[in-house]
Design goal:
- The structure is a single chain.
- By secondary structure, this protein is mainly α.
- It has a domain of 29 residues.
- Helices cover 42% and strands 0% of the residues.
- The longest helix has 23 residues.
- The protein is rod-shaped and about 130 Å long.
- The chain starts with a helix and ends in an 8-residue tail after the last helix.
Length: 69
């Protein structure tokens, strides 16, 4: 009877040790906001180029020699 009690104690001790070992390996996930603000730096250069093509006839009308202006 005493031998069975010792084996039950050893078995329970083994289960407790196993549960503590498995419980220590559980992952921990934590979601936290950062203390610094998020900065987005956009270095964008916008360059517009407008080209106007004028017919030769219209160019002659608008020239200085035409007397229009």
């Amino acid at each position: 009877m005493r031998s069975e009690t010792i084996w039950i104690g050893v078995g329970m001790s083994a289960w407790v040790a196993l549960l503590l070992t498995v419980g220590a390996c559980t992952p921990r996930v934590e979601v936290a906001a950062s203390e610094k603000p998020i900065t987005i730096n956009l270095n964008v250069k916008i360059d517009h180029e407008i080209r106007v093509k004028v017919d030769k006839d219209l160019d002659q009308v608008l020239s200085n020699d035409s007397g229009l202006f």
